[in-house]
Amino acid sequence: MSDIPAASRPVVLTGDRPPGPLHLGHFCGSLRNRVTLQHGHDTFVLIADAQALPDNADDPGRITGHVIDLALDYLAVGIVPNLTTICVQSALPALCELTQLFRNLVTVARLERNPTIKEEIQARGFGRDVPAGLLCYPVAQAADIAAFRATLVPVGADQAPMIEQTHAIVQRPNRQVGHALLPEARALIPASGRLPGVDGRAKMSKSQGNALALSAADDDIRAAVRRTDTDSDYLRVSDPGRVEGNVVFTDLDAFDPDRDTVAEMKAHDRRGGLGDTVVKQRLRPCCSICSRRSV
Fold first, then answer.
1. How far apart are CA 118 and CA 140, in angstroms?
2. What gap in Å lies between CA 265 and CA 271, rounded to an integer?
3. How many whole angstroms separate alpha carbon 191 and alpha carbon 204?
4. What is the pTM of this model?
5. Which pLDDT belongs to residue 5?
6. What's the average model confidence in pLDDT over 110-126?
């Protein structure tokens, strides 16, 4: 436990939508930070089931069926209930009420310009048939952050525009009352950045089908590592390899604690003579350690 008095500790808020399991991209992008921050901070993790409704309205059972799984993923990576409060969003009606108020503080044009929302719309193929709830997702997130009076929000780099939009929303009531009624949260972005998917063509994502879930079984881990994209220009083992952009080496940088060995493997690959199988054999146990099944 931290020696920092509770009244002076920064407040951390983060969370996830429950349809589907968390994956290694979540672990790399946010979960590791949450585990560290729960020591010395007042931390809250929100299971955002209400925010998952816009693209699951036809099958809400997909949301309710994964709430417990999401909580299990949190516990598996090291989030401790004695240090972190895990909340279910729909159980806190005040969040919905504040969202309703905040919708009056932002324009549709501003919401449509949000890069994170534009990416979500494109990934789901909505075109102009965008659910209003999805378009207003940044408003709901701003309400969550403001309601908990969070000052630090661990997110991936792709979520930074959401925090910027939160600032713009909370500044409106702050200007109206003439003082900082609501604190402005700071985004905490991990140095490792986005984790690429196993196909090497996009970030790891549930919707893209290129992710490795934290709850993956050993056979699933082996299969995912086996199909992970490496160097498409690599013809023979004796050929010099390309480390930059190689998904397997990117994953090793993210998860392998033995930096010296990884550096030696990179040098060997650049010289030639290091086969993909050797590198993938090094990666597989790193993925297994991060899996929920290893806990």
1. 16
2. 10
3. 16
4. 0.80
5. 46
6. 86
